[in-house]
Automatic annotation (TrEMBL):
Domain of life, per lineage: Bacteria
Gene transcribed to yield this protein: shiA
Organism of origin: Brevibacterium sediminis
Database matches in Pfam families: MFS_1 (PF07690), Sugar_tr (PF00083)
The protein, known as: MFS transporter
Region Disordered: start-end pairs: 429-467
Residue intervals passing through the bilayer: 12-37, 49-71, 83-102, 114-139, 151-172, 184-203, 235-258, 278-298, 310-327, 333-351, 372-393, 399-420
Membrane topology listed for this record: Multi-pass membrane protein
Major facilitator superfamily (MFS) profile domain segment(s): 11-425
Cross-referenced PROSITE patterns: MFS, SUGAR_TRANSPORT_1, SUGAR_TRANSPORT_2
Length: 467
């Protein structure tokens, strides 16, 4: 038991550190897009169009996430979770560091944005493969009664990545203020990725492979074409799981996608705050996001993933419709309050996601299932959320249109949640492949499953597998 706890702690630490580094790299680009890249790489397009195009390059990377998810899912289900995580970490870090070396449009002309977009695509492929491996290592190492909590650990890598990227950028605005920040200060956070990747690689290479994959490999039961099996047998489940994530991702990318940072600091806009205080406010809100993400994971172990999601959607609605009225006061304090309120709902619709996703898919195609669902959900939700928000405000003249847009997306995500049965605590190993293959979609397949002791259970009972 002590050895198992030690392994779980080591895995938790490795997944937190690894995903934090990955999302630091990913969100650093997103924050820089509205603060720096719009001027240095797309400046000739004009103020509004350059910002929209810069945000669009954030979204372009999402279109390549499915490719990363397909590749990582295929090899993760065949070769293991650990090897995929090391590859994605190196790819993400290398792309981020190279961005720091890029010439600007003034120096290299159109070649500069082309290279920037190419490196962003590499980031997208890496991000598409990272998430599935990290969360499965955490969830499949955990015991069934703490799956939600353990699965939330790699999730907080998102908030830590946001905290680090915003904090380092804010620090550089003080070290290199004014023109110095645009000349060289913005490059330093990208160079820092080189050091972070070495740290992440050293930690991840020492992590044990998932016990579930060990069992599959020992029995030589790896599926030859896991992606094909997933699409053939579980396509509707993939769609619903994607829609669940869509609601969280669209709202989350108001900060992780750089929209709020750009909106609040735009000198031609209604607020015109300084970069530094806004970046520090975003960094502070990342802390509250971290806390509520962990709380959501733990709560889901007690009341079930589905019930926690329903509570989360209610909280997220409150956050969405209070965000812009608070931001529009022009006060940094009110901006911070709006972001914190938003992160309560973001945490409660994110912390339990790894455990829920892992429990939805059979062990033989689980890496493919969680990776592809996450990638598609990110495209439907966050990919172009900042661009859409910028376009809505430009065309309507009010941020209320953005709140309505985010609210509609959240309603669709809630509807998808209500169509899924709760499978909290279902056994995850290959011995239960038949049990796991029964559809968790309400109205499709038999709702009756059999546990180890032969008793019949209904998946809607959130405690049915938690004996």
């Amino acid at each position: 038991m002590a050895a198992q706890k030690h392994t779980q702690t080591r895995v938790a630490f490795a997944t937190i550190v690894g995903t934090s580094i990955e999302w630091y790299d990913y969100f650093l680009y997103a924050a820089a897009s509205g603060l720096i890249f719009n001027e240095l790489f797309f400046g000739p397009l004009g103020s509004t169009l350059s910002t929209m195009v810069a945000f669009a390059t954030v979204g372009i990377s999402f279109l390549f996430r499915p490719l990363g998810a397909f590749l990582a899912g295929h090899f993760g289900d065949k070769l293991g979770r650990r090897v995929v995580l090391i590859i994605t970490l190196i790819a993400m870090g290398a792309a981020t560091a190279l961005i720091g070396f890029l010439p600007t449009f003034e120096t290299a002309g159109v070649l500069a944005p082309i290279l920037l977009i190419a490196l962003r695509i590499v980031q997208g492929i890496s991000a598409g493969g990272e998430w599935g491996g990290a969360v499965l290592l955490a969830v499949e190492h955990a015991d069934e009664k703490s799956r939600g909590l353990r699965g939330s650990f790699p999730q907080i890598g998102v908030s830590i990545g946001l905290l680090l990227s915003s904090g380092v950028l804010a620090l550089m605005t003080s070290i290199a203020p004014g023109d110095a920040f645009l000349e060289w200060g913005w490059r330093v956070p990208f160079f820092l990725s080189i050091v972070l990747v070495f740290v992440g690689y050293w930690i991840r290479r020492g992590v044990e492979e998932s016990p579930v994959f060990h069992e599959i490999a020992e029995r030589k039961e790896q599926v030859t074409n896991p992606l094909g099996k997933l699409i053939k047998s579980h396509w509707l489940l993939v769609i619903l799981a994607s829609l669940v994530f869509m609601g969280n991702n669209a709202a989350g990318y108001m900060t992780t996608g750089g929209y709020i940072q750009n909106y609040a600091t735009d000198p031609t806009g209604p607020i015109g705050l300084e970069r530094g205080p806004v970046l520090w406010a975003v960094a502070a809100s990342a802390v509250s996001w971290l806390v509520f993400t962990i709380i959501a994971g733990a709560v889901s172990d007690r009341i079930g993933r589905r019930n926690t999601y329903i509570l989360g959607w209610i909280l997220l609605f409150a956050g969405i419709f209070s965000l812009f009225p608070l931001v529009n006061t022009g006060s940094v304090g009110m901006l911070l309050l709006g972001l914190v309120v938003l992160t309560i709902g973001l945490g409660f619709t994110y912390g339990q996601q790894p455990a829920m996703y892992a429990e939805l898919f059979p062990s033989s195609v689980r890496f493919s299932g969680v990776s592809v669902s996450y990638a598609i959900g990110s495209i439907l939700g966050g990919a172009f959320a900042p661009t859409i928000a910028k376009g809505l405000v430009s065309s309507t003249g009010t941020t209320a249109s953005v709140a309505v847009y985010l609210g509609v997306v959240a309603v669709l995500a809630l509807a998808a949640t209500l169509l899924l049965r709760d499978r909290t605590g279902i056994p995850l190993g290959p011995d239960h492949e038949d049990e796991q293959s029964v559809s968790p979609i309400i109205g499709i397949g038999s709702p009756q499953l059999t546990s180890d002791d032969g008793d019949r259970h209904h998946p809607a009972d959130t405690r049915s597998y938690m004996n």
